[in-house]
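May I ask for an example protein's residues together with how it folds?

___
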Amino acid sequence: MPFSSVRSGLAMGILVALFALVARSVSAATPSNLLNRQPVSGALACERMRAVELDGATVNSVALTPAGQAILPGPDGKDGPATQLPAFCRINLTMSPESGSAIGVELWLPVTGWNGRFLGTGNGGGAGRLSLGKPMTQNLRRGFAVANTDLGTAPNALAAIGRPVRWRDFGYRANHEMARAARTFIKAFYGRPARHSYFTGCSTGGQQALVNVQRYPDDYDGVLVGAPAQDRTHIHMSFLWNWNALVETPGAKLSGAKLDLVHAAIVKACGNGRDGGAPGDDYLTDPRGCRFEDVAVPRCDAGDKADCLTDAQRLALRRVYDGAVNPRSGERIYPPLAIGAETTPPGLEAQQRQTWPRQMFYPFYWALGRDAFQPASFDFDRDVDRIDGVLAGLLNANSTDLSAFRRRGGKILWYHGLSDPVIPFDTSVDYYERHVSANGGDLAAVQTYMRLFLAPGMAHCTGGPGAWNIGQDMAPGAEMSPDRDALWALVRWVENQRMPTRLLGARFQDNDARKPVVALRPLCPYPEFPRYTGGNPALASSFRCQVRARGNIHAVAARYVD
């Protein structure tokens, strides 16, 4: 053999040995969890998800979505590009825990930069389709593995008429099935389970969060609960109550101009600093002491004019602000619209549109049938019991027993807008107070695992005239800030035992998170409320959290929450 070949072979052998030595040194010095943090090949690992087996699951599609190339449905239902998303493995499933069940689930697994956490996300209304916007997109960008479910009511809630299996899926099973699928595919993709699992949802999503805490306490380590529809059957009775008062009653409908008139009179009577807010606020910081009978709204002497209320309109509003009650016993079925929230979008104007029954009356069609239910003839005594007899056990999440979730160290961070025109904040305070009572009245003990933040000027989940943004619509520069981001405050609470003592709400110019912040205000843990102390009302330093009286709400009768 020529000397040059021997020398070349010897050099190659030395190089191979050196590479092996370096590899062994790196392996010895590097924790195995870091070596296995990401899949070797995102495309290959993603493709392997097709072969994952899970009882009751059908894998519909698996696709590696390159960075910047995701196509997602927009708010208008039309597909469009989501260019800000990183590369991720997109898995679409159907979960069928029993015959007739078809729960749609979608799971997104970041190919690189996974933060070791899983985040389940909530849906809204009657669901019926996957909710693939925020918070799915914004939290995928932050490194979470994220998932969503259509709650098994596709294509819409009315399709579940006569199908009790779909009612069970919507009420409690769909989110648990989503969590079960997520655990399986996360472990298969990354080679290890998520370190921590979280859930975030508002409205129906808030109901999902509480359902899981009550029924499946092992699914999540922490839940971010927003304006929950946990008393599902009765909130729809509230919608029906308002519909009958405003639409089914001749001459009672209220225009946007009339509602503006009413709102201005409410703020004049109950706001302007008397509620703890700043003078000039167009919303109430603490609406609990305000009563419609104390509000001076001009009365129309003759005819229906824009700058006054007719007797029929005044009576209808009194019914709305009194709320749904049993006409025979006087027992409260559900809290009324929050006073001061009448013009906050979607407000009372939306509840008078002809599209409202189709969107919000589906539980009545489920329980009574499409032909048997007529809004104007609904009996708020006997028919309430009929609806509850069929659906309350499936849909409502009113149980105050959170002991299993609490024992395993679970945390609940709960928020609700004080200008919410859809789900009144009273229902969150009512649940919180009932839970405190069920735990011996020990508020301090409850606050170690569940904290309620009431947000002045926040509408339903997002929007409104106040400083409402606590991360639901991610603000530039606010990512992973536990003061400005409620989800990150929850993560820090669960993982570092740092209990949130306040949140910082932001209001952006034109309510657009891409524009400058125009106001910051503190959100305080109930029973604390912000109080203006002087200075620039756009600065959080001009307010301090102050304990105010507990309760003082329209509490629901025990028979309707048991």
